[in-house]
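To: structure desk
From: M.T.
Subject: fold request, one chain
Message: Could you run this one when you get a chance? Sequence is below, nothing fancy, just the single chain.
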Amino acid sequence: MEMLVLVMMIALGAFWLKSRDQARRVALLGRHLMQFQIEKLMENLTQGYLRALGESDPERQAPIWAMLNAQERDLVEQFSRFATAFAAVGEADARVSTLPVALPYASQLLPKATFDMRRALAVHARGIAEAVENSHGPTPRDKAYTLSAELFLMQHTCHWYCRSRAVASARLLARHQTSYAQVLAAVAPSTRQAYEAVIAA
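Reply: Done. Structure tokens follow.
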């Protein structure tokens, strides 16, 4: 009985520490994101792409694509500023655990099993900018497909930073009906190569 109580106390203590660590990360990322409208722009673009792709008449598609072009450029500018601002975060606060499950303060206790969020955001900033420049396809549809993948992967990284890789993947699947592997395969090859190098570091 005493052993069971001890195990329960240890489990509760670990859960409390994990929740505290995650809350700190959510707050840190939130403080940087609140200065920008990145999430709103992402939502507008995702809905706009669906509207444009749902139109069979090219003449009806054209004004939608034109409106989205302006929002894409705004997103590039804002995300670049966000990544630059987050680059000033200290190394200890920027480490992300690569362990399969979330453990309290794992990024500090096991620094070799981590990657640098600042480097990951820099990769995402370049990938988003290149997708908006439409360097990965000749049509707006191609750009929409690649940019959506770049945005979903960036969102996965943010959730991974705040919670864990497993939680991030589950949220990606629930929100966008897309797996982490599918998103990683859909981004530009340059993004995928750079991203995999960062998370493997």
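Reply (cont.): Residues 2-200 form one domain. Let me know if you need anything else for the meeting.
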